[in-house]
Amino acid sequence: MVQRFDVGARISEMAVHNNTIYLAGQIAEDDSQDIRGQTQQVLASIDALLARAGSDKSKILMAQIFLADPKDFAAMNEVWDAWVVPGQTPPRATVLAGLVKPEWKIEIVVTAAP
Fold first, then answer.
1. Superfamily for the 2-112 domain
2. Which H or E run contains 44?
3. pLDDT bracket for residue 8 (50, 70, 90)
4. Residue 10 — pLDDT band, cuts 50, 70, 90?
5. Is 1 helix (H, G, I), strand (E, B) or coil?
6. First CA to last CA distance, the chain
């Protein structure tokens, strides 16, 4: 069985199947903020979605981070490092990407265990 959350015409924010949680790419709601602010917003969205599925950031299996500007890498890492659970840091990939809106600085996709 597949359980979907916040189903829209184009995407669902989250799906759970076979004890795996899949999140859609999370972006900042307030895209006027700098990379630190946008990263904090995205990580808060991830926390909230994982909690709805009975999970948390310590159970992330894989994170994919999409950055619009390589100059933001260090500042994004500062926020990320403060957020992750020590000893439970997940595998991660960070890539440069042309995000859909020029105001978007970051998008993060995660897969997690319940």
1. RutC-like (3.30.1330.40)
2. helix 35-52
3. very high
4. very high
5. coil
6. 15
Query: Cβ(80)–Cβ(43) under 8 Å?
Result: yes
C-alpha 50: how far from its chain's center? 10
Q: Quote the tokens at residue 53.
A: 């599925």
Of how many residues is the chain composed?
114
Domain ranges across the chain = 2-112
Which 3 state secondary structure label does DSSP give 2? strand
Q: What's the pLDDT tens digit per position in 35-58?
A: 999 999 999 999 999 999 999 999
Coil, strand or helix at 91: coil
Work out the average pLDDT over 85-90.
Answer: 96
